[in-house]
Write a structure and sequence with these properties.
Main location: membrane
GO cellular component, one term: plasma membrane
Distance between the termini: 128 Å
InterPro entries: GPCR_Rhodpsn, GPCR_Rhodpsn_7TM, Prostanoid_rcpt, Thbox_rcpt
Helix content: over 70%
Membrane topology: Multi-pass membrane protein
Keywords: Cell membrane, Disulfide bond, G-protein coupled receptor, Glycoprotein, Membrane, Phosphoprotein, Receptor, Transducer, Transmembrane, Transmembrane helix
Strand order of the largest sheet: 1-2
Number of helices: 12
Strand content: under 5%
Largest sheet: 2 strands, antiparallel
Number of strands: 2
């Protein structure tokens, strides 16, 4: 017995294949059908973004498109790397112990799951910060954010996610074979080192979602005020609204797809309860939908598509205010006039008062 424990690799020490898990959540059809679909959607989205990148002349929009391209590449590679392994296992039923006696292959897949899981969340938070600065501090941002700097930021996000995925290889957590034997992931348990990594993974993901929600909310409020304020016609805001709509949808999809898994991992290790494998597989399915649905945000929520769907809207005007009814604009203006238009209005009243007084000045008496 001791000899068997000594010769068992670490990644197979908890779950040792083969497994008998006939639950429908572990069906091969999900990976076989939706992985190729997700890859196709991301490839189409990447082509759409490249065409948009070539046509754009705005610095803020071009840097935002760099972040979107980084997100598309991340989603595409995540589906490609993990999908190939899972689909190959289901069709060939290869023996993990013989194929990977030293756990290199299992560690690679575990690292890929962590890396390609955290990258979309971190990139979403990064884009939220970029849009927050671009809308609330446009002059400071216009002089600092360039395409090359946006590329560097994407590389930094990938580096941070890569460093986190390497922690189990240095003793903080551990990667293990997971039921039904087609994938590897970090061990979700209350053991000290495993708990630290589980909480780190969950907190980084939840914090990224919280930052995205907070900053996107502030950005939307600010953008609505500017678009519906009295100076709305002085600056073109259609592309900024388009970027915010895309970012809001990215945040919503990430929240719906990832929060169940992140909360489940934290709750499991903190309550010291046994791992519920069907729930884990279900929440992993939810998280995978993030990579499948993200491309449709870039494909559908574009100004060119909206023009075709709503041709009666006045797209030639410089403000997104034309997309809303007059009553809605009037309501927003009443709420925002005190914060945005007070100084302008006050200055205008003072100018009118001065001009009126100038007409009331009596002319000097003519000399005899």
């Amino acid at each position: 017995m001791n000899l068997s424990n000594e010769t068992t690799p670490q990644c197979f020490s908890i779950n040792n294949p083969p497994f008998n898990f006939p639950h429908t959540i572990a069906s091969v059809y999900f990976s076989t059908v939706f992985s190729p679909l997700g890859l196709t959607f991301n490839l189409i989205a990447f082509v759409v973004l490249l065409k948009s990148f070539q046509r754009t002349h705005s610095r803020s929009r071009s840097s935002f498109l760099v972040f979107l391209c980084g997100l598309v590449v991340t989603d595409f590679m995540g589906l490609l790397v993990t999908g190939i392994i899972v689909i190959t296992f289901h069709f060939t039923q290869f023996n993990w112990r013989r194929l990977d006696p030293h756990c290199h292959f299992c560690n690679y897949m575990g690292m890929s799951m962590v890396f390609y899981g955290l990258c979309p969340l971190l990139l979403g938070a990064t884009m939220a910060v970029e849009r927050f600065v671009g809308i609330n501090r446009p002059f400071a941002r216009s002089t600092s954010m360039t395409k090359s700097r946006a590329v560097c930021i994407v590389l930094m996000v990938w580096a941070v996610a890569g460093c986190i995925s390497l922690l189990p290889l240095v003793g903080v957590g551990s990667y293990h074979m997971q039921i039904p034997g087609s994938w590897c992931f970090f061990n979700i348990s209350s053991k000290a080192s495993d708990m630290v990594f589980c909480l780190l993974f969950s907190l980084v993901g939840l914090l990224s979602i919280a930052v995205s929600f907070l900053l996107n909310t502030v950005s939307v409020v600010t953008l609505v005020k500017v678009c519906c304020g009295q100076d709305s016609m002085q600056r073109r805001r259609d592309y900024e609204v388009e970027m915010m709509v895309q970012l809001i949808w990215i945040m919503m999809i990430a929240t719906i797809c990832w929060c169940p898994l992140l909360v489940f991992i934290a709750q499991t290790v903190l309550s010291e309860s046994p791992l519920q494998v069907p729930n884990l597989l279900l929440f992993i399915r939810f998280a995978t939908w993030n990579q499948i649905l993200d491309p449709w945000v870039y494909i559908l929520f574009r100004r060119a598509v909206l023009k075709r769907l709503y041709p009666n809207w006045d797209w030639s005007r410089g403000s997104i205010r034309t997309l809303y009814p007059a009553s809605f604009v009037g309501t927003i203006r009443r709420f925002t006039r005190s914060s945005l238009g007070g100084d302008v209005l006050g200055g205008g009243e003072r100018r009118v008062s001065v001009e009126t007084q100038s007409f009331k000045v009596k002319a000097p008496p003519s000399s005899p």
